Amino acid sequence: MALRRLLRKRWVLAVVFGLSLIYFLTSTLKQQEERTVRDRALLEVRDSDRRIPWKVRFNLGNSSRQTGRCRNSIQGKTLLTDELGYVCERKDLLANSCCNVNAPRSRQHVCKSCLANGCCSVYEYCVSCCLRPDKQILLERFLNRAAEGFQNLFTAVEDVFELCLAKCRTSSQSVQHENTYRNPQAKYCYGESPPELFPI
Hints:
Elements: H1 2-8, H2 10-45, E1 79-81, E2 86-89, E3 107-108, E4 119-120, H3 123-130, H4 136-149, H5 151-154, H6 160-168, E5 175-176, E6 180-181, E7 188-189
Antiparallel strand pairs: 1-2, 2-3, 4-7, 5-6
Helix pairs in contact: 3-6
């Protein structure tokens, strides 16, 4: 009976609520701290000497590779980019998935629709431009910083082609208010900074 009367008092309920809130917050913060420590441990375990191969391991003849196959950007409706940095029309794709370098419209390291900040209006041109040898320093600098925010995505890439494919995809950095592009004309970026905000 005394316990029931005690529980009806508002100050007792406030104390119980306050203690419950404190318990909840401390346990949540403790779990967050444990996750952070675990994530940092994963970063330290990562092989720091692992380097991304910056050169594709076969010649421009398209057929000297052991398996005789190229990887390409696949998704383009009319254009594709292969791992050598060639952009070609889908009809100019060889049986080994490489662009036909002898086709009149095949070009290597095309930056045709790209702005100075590394943002392009065409995904395939973004990948091709990103594969230019002079972009290596930019990409290495990005990878060194990517360990913090994009650990799972960018440290899982095996070579520069995979890095450029992933980097050029639109991301949360390309949008504002979660539903419109920052710059609808240049939404595919390999550069360090997000696209500039397009005036409305």
